[in-house]
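Q: What changes when heme C is included in the input?
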Amino acid sequence: MSFLRSRFVQAVLVLVLAFVILRFGIRPPAPWSVLTLYMAIIFMAVLIFVSSDRDSWRDFISPIWSTLVRPERRVLRTVLVIVLPLLMGYYAYTQAAARPQAPPELRAVHPAPPASIQLKGKEFNISGAENPLRKDAARLKEHAAKGGEIYIRNCVYCHGDNLDGKGHFAPGFNPPPANFQDPGTIAMLQEAYLFWRIAKGGPGLPKESTPWNSVMPAWEDRLSEEQIWQVIIYLYEATGQQPRRWEAGEHGGH
Ligand code: HEC
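A: The predicted holo structure follows.
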């Protein structure tokens, strides 16, 4: 084991051992940045150790020196001169090369609605708005029936005849048409929210929900205000869901 007495071998051993311990011996594993920091400190400590006196330094330097100048080390030297730059180059490449990455798709499924929207030139307050058709309980059935007609004419081919988002066109769309039977859609939304979504559709979604290639059409020019409220009543009647109510304090004044 005479080679163990060589300062160079000792230095390399200490570095390799320290690396193995820090990399694999610690739980939880240290982050890479901490590891490089520790390794730099250990490397400096090793340099101080091998250069603590002249003999030790000469001992440390001699294998490096002989590899660089001795004729009989020529083969090793040539190999190192080729392999080391290649390794460095490979390392630099792995650091700089762009990695293939799936684009992040963080769309807000139910973005906050604007407080008010422009509807046919007039201001419509969403915050706190109730379905006006619910005031007249006697005509609710009639409104639901009208809403059903509107739904069959305009919505069924995307949202499906079971209101489950499985209309004929649905397989072609991403995001898929909303499934109103799912408790995660209209059951947790206020009617005013639906009003906004039906009136303004995919184009009316706020910036924060991009990338959002929703095909949900804007119906403001095709359906009257009353028709939109009617189709909303139909959606809740047909699915048996209850709209979420405005909680006290959620809006001003109502
Ligand atoms: C061309 C296909 C298409 C048609 C037609 C369509 N929708 Fe949509 N709708 C969608 C898609 C896709 C979504 C999901 C993406 C989104 O929220 O914009 C959606 C979402 C919705 C939402 C939002 C639900 C939620 O949970 O946020 C409502 C409400 C809605 N549609 C109602 C209607 C009504 C009412 C009609 C008919 C007047 C209609 N849609 C017609 C495609 C359509």
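Observations recorded in class: The CA atoms of residues 202 and 216 lie 5 Å apart.
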